[in-house]
Amino acid sequence: MLSDGTARDRDIARARLQFLENEDPPPTIVPEGIRNSWRRCKYLGIGTDEVVVPYQPDYDRESRLVRAAAPIMDRLERALAGSDACVIVTDREGWVRDRRVGEKRLSAHLDRVHLAPGFNYAEQFVGTNGIGVALEERRPNVVLGTEHFNERLQNVSCAAAPIRNSVTGRLAGAMNLTCWNGPSRTLMAALVQEAAADIERVLYESSSSHQRALLEAFQQATHYGDRPVLCLGQDLVLANSAASARLTGDDHRLLHRAADELGHAPRSRKEVQLTGGTTVLMRCRRVDSPAGAAGYLLELAFTDGPSDRDRSPSGTRSRTGARSGSGARSGSGARSGSAARSGSRAERDATRPWPLPGLAGTDPAWNTVSRTVSRCARDRTPLLLHGETGTGKSALARAAHALTGAASAPLVVDALDPQAADAGAGLPAVLRAAPAGPGRALVLRNVDAVTPEQGPAVALALEAAAAQGTWIVGTLHRAPGVPEPLRRCFVEAAAVPALRHRLADLPALVDCLLRRIGAGVECAPEVLPLLRRHDWPGNVRQLNDVLGQAAAGRRTYRIELRDLPPFLHSAGSRRLSAWEASERDTLVQALLETDGNKLLAAQRLGISRTTIYRKMRAYGISLPTRP
Ligand SMILES: Nc1ncnc2c1ncn2[C@@H]1O[C@H](COP(=O)(O)OP(=O)(O)OP(=O)(O)O)[C@@H](O)[C@H]1O
After folding, report:
1. Ligand 1 touching residue 445 (CB < 6 A)
2. Distance (Å, whole) CA 244 – CA 336
3. Considering the domain boundaries, does residue 99 fall inside one?
4. What's 276's domain CATH number?
5. How far apart (Å, rounded) are the C-alpha atoms in residues 241 and 262?
6. Which region ranges are annotated with the description Disordered (predicted)?
7. Is the pLDDT at 385 greater than 90, yes or no?
8. Span from the CA of 66 to the centroid of ligand 1 (angstroms)
9. Domain extent for 223
10. Which residues contact 399 (CB under 8 A, 6 or more apart)?
11. Last residue of a domain, one of 205, 230, 260
């Protein structure tokens, strides 16, 4: 830890000022983690001289995290009594849940900068700080004095470490130690990491015996080698990277059903056809815990459709499916384990971004599908892309085709287009008329909408185009939907991940889509967390529409919470009637206009405050508190 006057502090302070005036921070002076955080802060337009953070005084003081952290916080409070140090625990969104301070002056200072229970210290509100960086980058870090983005935090230093739920692998919160500038940074970092590990251990011990049994079985099975392993419990899915890269959430359900059908045989094998058409041989073992059957451990061997890495140099054709871990939204914990240990080529490839022109994303499943589509475009391998609507199937084909240096864009034909789907020879005729030859690409959207009558003629037209060198791509929402005569037209298949399964890509996608919408349009910092809460059934297309409409109707230079459509402010899972949807929208509008003040909103709508609370609960409305 350095005192205010050290040369390093001065250099960092100077680099920060230059950075604020648009110079990139010199890597020799500013550590990489800090540089990256400063860039994120600048992108989000975070203030540098005022601490303005959301506050929610009503939170669960008995949450699992708070209970797990309590004995560790008690111990640290005793150890740090009278010292110039403070320990803080936050939840995974950065809300401060507990704080213990050694001495009064530091306590008063932290109150002034709102580093106190009920306030949110995520990076998107306060800028570079230990808690924010630990949660954003999911790793321990130290932020010293002038490295803080906000000037008001520069007379303290902090070390923080993420707290993970070791069963699900998910982030649970962060542990942070803050003190006046001065003490040794190594000690701070070591102390905070040890405390985070202790909380993780308590969390593990408080998990169910089913979950612990599954995790143990999973760890044993993945300890050696990198064969695909999947563990399925009632509320938990564990997959190593070799399995998660090739299975979708629907595949998990199929495999679960197949395992159930095997009954109670201690070890058995079964062949299962996955949603992408690939067949997998699963070896299944039931996992028991002291409380009964916990779930299944499946060791998988993909018996057809070798993946990228198995493709021989002589050009043997293959089928691939790609997707990252799954099911997190359906109430199951999902994690990818042993990626570091296994390190097969497919896994390493998945972590390497594969940028395509005009598209954003670096999620492993997105990287894998981008790489597959590019290879197919280069080799003219007919490809079937499946994934929910708006995930970017046509966009991928367009971008990969452009990357081959082709002069013309792909011709996109939609089998659902009434003209193409015309009962006469409509669709086959449209396909036959498409310009064909090397350098051309033909995308047939909604392949599954081709009628049985049209199927044979459409297959012939696609084969004829492919024979002339045209790259053929088919898109549809669910892989098994390809009608029989058309199956033979496609040599490879790949899954495009849903947006809710790659939410880490959200900031890059928002950035990319806003650039398309127009120069200078940006989002207020509190917008991204709200976008992250949504499921996005319409995927990137829906995100694009929401941003486009919000940008068109924005009242200031940037998109604010109140510019977003009301459905984003509510998290209800039930389908609403038209009347209910309109009631919810009116409620959200009133709350936004009164800055979340329920009393004012109730008065404005002529209803009681109790009613407004009840309706907010019923519709799942929770407006982030505005600073
Ligand atoms: N990774 C991405 N980066 C930027 N924009 C994207 C990305 N993925 C999709 N989009 C945009 O989202 C919109 C929808 O994409 P696209 O039409 O390719 O979806 P799709 O999966 O083919 O949909 P459908 O199944 O309905 O045909 C397009 O505007 C596209 O440019």
Report:
1. yes
2. 7
3. yes
4. 3.30.450
5. 25
6. 303-365
7. yes
8. 41
9. 209-341
10. 356, 357, 358, 359
11. 205
Q: Assess whether 65 and 197 both reside in one domain.
A: yes
The per-residue pLDDT of the chain, averaged, comes to 82
The answer to whether residue 562 sits within a structural domain is: no
**Cα 493 to averaged position of ligand 1 atoms, centre (Å):** 18
Q: Single out the residue in 500, 525, 550 at which a domain terminates.
A: 500
User: Do 377 and 301 have their domain in common?
Assistant: no
Mutate to test the pocket of ligand 1, among 367, 383, 516, 541 (most ligand atoms within 8 A of CB): 541
391 lines ligand 1 (CB under 6 A): yes
Regarding the beta carbon of 390 and ligand 1, being less than 6 Å apart is answered yes
Per-residue pLDDT of 80-120, as tens digits, reads 888 888 999 999 999 999 999 888 899 999 999 999 999 99
| Residue with tokens 């497919």, as numbered in its chain | 346
Residues 173 and 241 in one domain: no
My answer on whether 496 and 473 are in the same domain is yes
Measuring from atom 16 of ligand 1, which residue has the nearest CA?
392
Find the CATH number of the domain harbouring 386. Answer: 3.40.50.300
Ligand 1 centroid–CA 359 distance in Å is 9
Contact between residue 88 and residue 98 where contact means Cβ atoms under 8 Å apart: yes
The closest residue, in CA terms, to atom 25 on ligand 1 is 389
Are 79 and 149 part of one and the same domain?
yes
CA-closest residue to ligand 1 atom 26? 389
Per-residue pLDDT reduced to its tens digit, 397-426: 999 998 887 888 999 999 988 776 654 558
Whether residue 376 contacts residue 400, with contact meaning beta carbons closer than 8 Å, is answered with: yes
Determine which residue's CA is closest to atom 15 belonging to ligand 1.
Answer: 392
Q: State whether 270 and 418 are in the same domain.
A: no
Both 317 and 255 in one domain: the answer is yes
Q: Is the ipTM of this complex over 0.95?
A: yes
DSSP 354-377: ---TT-----HHHHHHHHHHHHHH
Residue 179 tokens, joined: 């003190």
367 lines ligand 1 (CB under 6 A): no
Residue 541 lies in a domain: no
Q: What is the CATH number of the domain that holds 97?
A: 3.30.450.40
* Residue 290 falls in which region: left (phi positive, over 0), alpha (psi -120 to 50) or beta: alpha
